[in-house]
Amino acid sequence: MKRRLFLACVLTFATAPAAAAQCQLCAPDKLTSAAAREAEVPLRVVVETRLDMGRIAVGAMGGEVAVDPVSGARRLSGDVVDLGGFALSGTVTVRGAPGAEVRVILPTSVDLEGGHGRTARVTGLITDLSAAPRLGPDGRLQFRFGGRLQIAGADDGDYRGRIPVTVEYQ
User: Which residues does UniProt assign to the signal peptide (predicted)?
Assistant: First the structure.
């Protein structure tokens, strides 16, 4: 008889908005209109929806749960069984200077903490952004992201962690 372990995972986010600034000693006397506009309008980053892998049971062999950022669909692989609940891709809204190009930085992996000192790792964090994302004419950009949760067979519990999301003007 296979023993199944319960696992629930919710990720929260630490946002680190940043605006690139020019060296005032090195810059020409007048900033370009785009650079001046960006300097006047700071970036704001708001997490609208947290990434949630849902509820699963994990067998002795472990497995993986992946959440697609575009569709929000959850894929299970390995010795993992779906116990229901909603899997959600994360949603972030960025506000700043209209039309400005931005760079979004997500870590390559994040360790989640569960009870009794256990950990699980989220890897492959990806967004649904284009290669050169820009804020819209209203100064707003919303994007979604997902990733893969890797679970060992003995790692049951409720896992939580923070994913730092950094956004910079280009």
Answer: 1-20
The Cα-based distances of 77 to 112, 124, 148 in angstroms read: 19, 15, 10
Query: Nearest Cα to 95, choosing from 165, 53, 44, 47?
Result: 44
Bridge partners of 150?
Answer: 64, 121
pLDDT digits (tens, 9 = 90+) for 108-154: 999 998 878 888 899 999 999 999 999 999 999 999 999 999 888 76
Structural domain boundaries in the chain: 5-169
What three-state secondary structure class fits 115? helix
Q: Report whether 163 contacts 51 (CB < 8 A).
A: yes
The whole-number pLDDT of residue 148 equals: 96
Question: Distances in Å between the alpha carbon of 121 and those of 55, 63, 86, 150, 160?
Answer: 16, 12, 20, 6, 10
